[in-house]
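Each letter names a residue; structure tokens follow underneath. Both lines appear below:
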Amino acid sequence: MISSTPSRGQRPSEGDQYHHGDLRRALVCAALEVLNTQGVEAISLRDVARRAGVSHAAPYRHFADKQALLHAMALAGFEDLRLRLLAARDASNADPVERLRALLKAYQAFGSAQAHQLNLMFGAAVVDKPPELEALALETFAVLVQAVSDAFATGASPAQAQNQDPARAIALSLWAHVHGLFVLGRQVDFTALNPASKPSTVLEASIDLIVDALSKAWLGQR
């Protein structure tokens, strides 16, 4: 029987180091490190190969070019975000409005922890998005749409008068509201506008305000 363990003094091959997609994952993780510390412009297949400890040619087994690597990074971001939203939904109590609030705050937490990745997911650096990236983004949005539908299943909506799906219209407005605060927070000092608050507190308070306002408008309570 031939052992797959390299003999003493022999350097493991790239095949020994990475199996069944581990190399791809390692390269994406290395690229995210670069993104968080140096920005998207600094990402290169050669550099992430060096960080992952493999040859310069190894990344091309998984990524045709830098843009393909950026696609994978964005995919990883949407999958992480989708799982966070689902976890927040499942961990929340039975009140559908509170579940929606929990989802929005999970999005806030993701944006605060992964600001550079969030910008990559929605920014202009990722071009010619592949169908699987578009599909995953829509799946992620669908989690929020369902939460809105559960929370505001009754009551008239201006969107209905315009032949729009009210749940999707509200979900889009909520997503834009929270995401817009992230964008604004990168350009404006929230503490200067409200010295008594931290940026994260401003985001949480804004989420509470809009959810409570929707609750009053649609459900006539809270």
